[in-house]
Amino acid sequence: MCDCQHDLTYNDFNPTVLFASKMKMVADGIYHAHKDFTELTYILSGKGKYQVEEKVYDVEAGDMIICNPGIRHRNIVINKEEPTVEFFTGFQNYHFKNMPPESICLKEGGYLLRLTTETKREISKKCYEILAENEACEMGKYFMLKAHLMQLLVLIIREILEEPYSKQKGYHFETYNKSYAVKRIINYLNENYEHKISLDQIAHNMYLSPVYISKIFKEETGESPINYLIKIRLERAKDILSSSCCGSIKSIANAVGYDDVYHFSKLFKKYYGISPQNYRKTLLEKNA
Question: How far apart are the C-alpha atoms of 93 and 261, rounded to whole Å?
Answer without folding.
Answer: 59
